[in-house]
Design a protein that fits this description.
alpha/beta; two-stranded antiparallel ribbon; 9 helices; 14 strands
Amino acid sequence: MKAVILAAGYGTRLQRDVLADSSGRFAHLAGTAKPLLPVGRCALVSHWVQALTASGCVDSIYVVTNAVYHAAFEKWASNFTNVMILNDQTRTNEGRLGAVACLQLAVKHFEIDDHVLVIGGDTLFKEDFSLSKVKETFSGHQAKCEDSCLVLSYQCKDEETHKYGILEVDGDLRVLCMKEKPLPTETKSRRACPCFYVFSKNSLPLLDTFIEEKKDAPIEEKDAPGNFVSWLIPRKPVYVHQISGRFDVGNLPSYIECDLYFREQLQDVESYMV
């Protein structure tokens, strides 16, 4: 299995918050890509590399970034032997390729012919999350059907459904559909789906089909990776692995909350996410 970490975003909301903050406490974060923000004792994305390496569930880690942050990611990656950086060549948020196109770029560039673990570079999970358990769940579904893919879900509050992709599942935890940011009255489900997916080797050719279908669509339809998951659900079996929650670093308050947790509340640093 290979890991692709999506890190080509421009973090516009967070950077706007940092510049607007009058305290000056966060001035050192200006111009830093979200995955490279210090969270606890290391960069956010380093938590993923350490856990992926310790768990042994992947044999290669690929990080897709943009031309603006490429040098910073190359410098960061020099601390690891199993991380490779891919530059998507974009320089502005307006000119971004979008997450699905970045995943397709990585699959083609690195000639990936294997299952792929896709991770949002601005996301971390609570301590109950385990890569080893995810791999075990995925392997169980693969034993029954080699097309099977896996996504995560956690319970969100009624007032939060409009922020997330919400999964509706059957009794076997197979996903029936994903509703994009529904009102709480539009679905009985409260299963939010974070940016963490295990795509089977057999599902990867469908990336090309999806991108071709969406070639004339606005960037928003190609950007959110959940759009590909939604499109994939009627075409391949997609199952859910349940977790308790996540940290999604989108703005300054969410960054502060995440950093505080990792500095003061994380119980076992060595086994985190393994």
